[in-house]
Design brief:
Elements: E1 2-7, E2 10-17, E3 25-27, H1 28-33, E4 48-49, E5 55-56, E6 58-70, E7 73-84, E8 92-94, H2 96-102, E9 105-107, E10 112-116, E11 122-126, H3 129-141, E12 182-186, E13 193-197, H4 202-214
Parallel strand pairs: 2-8, 3-7
Antiparallel strand pairs: 1-2, 1-6, 3-8, 4-5, 6-7, 9-10, 10-11, 12-13
């Protein structure tokens, strides 16, 4: 859900309410537009990680009073924002910390958020569908962030799997080899043979030869 809030006497639009986020985020581009002095930013060098595992650097954090609602139906709470430099179409992301501090109930089907006012009344903030569509369209045009994997390296050469590559015995020193002298029994398919031990009794040899001739799985 996308809403509008007031921060530092600015009406900040395109604010994403994300119940799946464990942090509240003020994006770096918005921080600069609001002309907040860098001295108010507390250093914080720990990165955060996105849904797909990408590493997102942080600039620091800042405490800002944020107002929800309009007119007389408003509520202001302090929010600690993590300032993040990332490609996004949103200005602010409100996660669980601010939602819980606000005492809000978010209804995605109704595109609305309800929370109690200081006087005990119920304030309703409606989502901005037009802004949500604009953010979605803009997000499709943003460059994809590089995916940083951990302890995984991809070969430069493109590898195509075939039958041999799926055999776990390939390139293994422990592959079993026949012991002693062997001889080949001819199969029905020309050029195909079955390798057996030279000391195999004649009765068993004939039985194996019959089975081998009927089997379609034999190979050279």
């Amino acid at each position: 859900m996308v809403v509008t809030v007031e921060v530092k006497n600015f009406a900040v639009k395109k604010v994403l309410v994300d119940q799946g986020s464990s942090v509240d985020i003020l994006y770096w581009k918005t921080f600069n537009k609001m002309q907040i002095p860098l001295a108010e930013l507390t250093p914080h060098n720990e990165p955060i990680y996105g849904f797909s595992g990408e590493r997102v650097p942080t600039k620091g954090y800042i405490n800002l009073h944020t107002t929800f609602g309009e007119g007389r139906q408003t509520k202001t709470i302090p929010i600690r924002y993590l300032v993040v430099d990332a490609h996004t179409s949103y200005n602010i992301l409100l996660g669980r910390p601010s939602i819980n501090a606000l005492g809000a109930i978010v209804s995605t089907p109704h595109l609305a958020m309800k929370f109690p006012s200081p006087e005990g009344d119920i304030i309703t903030v409606h989502g901005d569908q037009r802004a949500a569509r604009e953010c979605y369209v803009a997000s499709l045009k943003l460059p994809l962030p590089p995916l940083i994997t951990h302890n995984v390296e991809q070969s430069q050469a493109h590898t195509t799997l075939n039958g041999d590559d799926l055999d776990p015995r390939i390139n293994s020193e422990a592959r079993l080899e026949p012991v002693g002298e062997t001889r080949q029994l001819p199969l029905e398919q020309q050029g195909h043979f079955l390798q057996v031990g030279a000391s195999l009794p004649e009765g068993e040899e004939g039985h194996i030869e019959q089975v081998g001739r009927r089997s379609p799985r034999c190979s050279p």
